[in-house]
Amino acid sequence: MSDKIEMLKKALEKDPNNPLGLYGLAMEYFKEGDYENAIVYLKKYLSLHDDEGAGYRTLAQCYVNLGDIENAIESYQRGIEAAAKYNHPTMVSEFQQEIETLKSML
Q1: pLDDT at 1
Q2: What is the DSSP track for 17-68?
Q3: CB of 35 closer than 8 Å to CB of 65
Q4: Are residues 60 and 103 in the same domain?
Q5: Are residues 25 and 56 in the same domain?
Q6: Among 53, 10, 12, 5, which Cα is nearest to 30's?
Q7: Three-state DSSP class for 1?
Q8: Which end of the chain has a smaller Cβ tally under 10 Å, C or N?
Q9: Which parts of the chain sit beneath pLDDT 70?
Q10: What whole-number distance in Å separates Cα of residue 46 and Cα of residue 19?
């Protein structure tokens, strides 16, 4: 386990609902290829914070890496809603393309 992960876990002990800490920890797990733990912290982050779409992209990528295409599609769909809410049309288009690619894998 990396020093960054240890540091972020200690910070979250003091403030377990800190969105930056949750997102940061999820991203560190993602970088290490620990997609299961990344999903845990991304889900908690997304339940507490109004994300603009990037968190859903990473969540979807975790599911893709684990072979869970259905949950990846669902995550991209939720990301489309968030990106549209925050007026990120390029992200909406990107997520729509990803969904079409994933549907062809089912």
Answers
A1: 74
A2: T-HHHHHHHHHHHHHHT-HHHHHHHHHHHHHHS---SHHHHHHHHHHHHTT-
A3: yes
A4: yes
A5: no
A6: 5
A7: coil
A8: C
A9: none
A10: 8
Helix, strand and coil in the chain, % to nearest 5: 80, 0, 20
* Residue 19 and residue 4 share a domain: yes
**Domain region containing 33:** 1-49
Same-domain status, 62 and 89: yes
Please state, in angstroms and rounded to a whole number, the distance separating the CA atoms of residues 65 and 74: 15
pTM: 0.95
**3-class SS of residue 2:** coil
Domain end, chosen from 12, 27, 49, is at 49
> How many domains, in total, are found in the chain?
2
